[in-house]
User: What shape does this take?
Amino acid sequence: YPKGWYNLGVALFENGRHEEAAAAFREVVRWQPGHARARFNLGKVSLALGRGGQAVREFRTTASGWPCSGCRG
Assistant: This one.
């Protein structure tokens, strides 16, 4: 189900239906809390809706869990 919700969220966002896109991306995150792309897109939607604080939280969550293949420890 998350893949379908994710694809729906992308389509809704691209068509300017931001509230509905946010709901779709939240559904993805409900099923898969670590879904980085859904969280990133939820941040983008939050920005489009003027919810800067929410956007920052989503971007931070995304950054903290995003795989970093070029990182050195």
